[in-house]
Write a structure and sequence with these properties.
229 residues, mainly alpha
Length: 229
């Protein structure tokens, strides 16, 4: 396995921030110059576009920093292994979901009742175009990019310097904190532990992506049903 250096990880973060800033400036400038009145009445759609751009920028930064598609496969381990590993990922997700619910109940006095971040985002608009951008972003693009970064790049680097247990815990903690959702910290931490364990157990971020995409898709479906009612 090709090693993942801290310098390359920092370069990835720097490239991502630069790409996000550039995309944001271009999008806001285009919205302001070409259709200012439209932009004022379609802020939710601009949020959807900016969210998709942020994840596309992260994917571009990962590819630039780790050697394109081959680097994602060989360095960040985004590769199919075997059907048994996919099944393990799904079973682990189900167990983690139960554990996360239990932890959220126990942690509620401190962190408060958890609120779905998918619900907060999808509540912004009922526009088909908004949903057409947000749903694939939340269900596929975001899980892929987050797994490549957290379980691929970050865990890969930490594992070079730490034993498995502290690397796993630290990756999960950073993953939970990076979402900036205090009430969801316990849930995201438990999910992060499960995702990182599957990545380590199967040596594949594709399998943790399957878990992550399943979680987000279930959350989006539940949100849709809630809003529809």
């Amino acid at each position: 396995m090709t090693e993942i250096s801290g310098r390359r990880l920092l370069a990835c973060v720097g490239v991502w921030l630069a790409l996000v800033l550039a995309a944001l400036v271009v999008t806001l400038a285009a919205a302001g110059l070409a259709a200012r009145a439209w932009a004022l009445h379609h802020r939710a759609l601009l949020v959807a576009i900016a969210t998709a751009e942020a994840y596309l920028a992260l994917l571009a930064a990962l590819m630039l920093s780790y050697g394109g598609p081959a680097g994602l496969r060989d360095r960040l381990r985004f590769r199919y292994t075997r059907l048994r590993d996919v099944a393990l990922a799904l079973v682990t997700w189900a167990v983690a979901l139960i554990a996360a619910d239990l932890v959220s109940v126990l942690a509620a006095p401190v962190f408060g009742p958890p609120q779905s971040n998918a619900e907060a985002e999808l509540r912004l608009s009922s526009s088909p175009l908004f949903w057409g951008i947000m749903v694939p972003t939340l269900c596929l693009l975001a899980p892929a990019c987050e797994e490549l970064f957290f379980r691929g790049a970050l865990f890969g680097w930490l594992r070079r310097h730490l034993p498995l247990a502290p690397a796993l815990v630290l990756t999960a903690a950073i993953f939970a904190g990076a979402h900036l959702l205090p009430d969801l910290l316990p849930v995201l931490f438990v999910l992060g532990l499960a995702l990182t364990w599957v990545r380590s157990r199967t040596d594949s971020t594709f399998n943790s992506f399957v878990m992550h995409a399943t979680q987000n898709t279930v959350a989006v479906i539940a949100t849709y049903e809630l809003l529809r009612r």
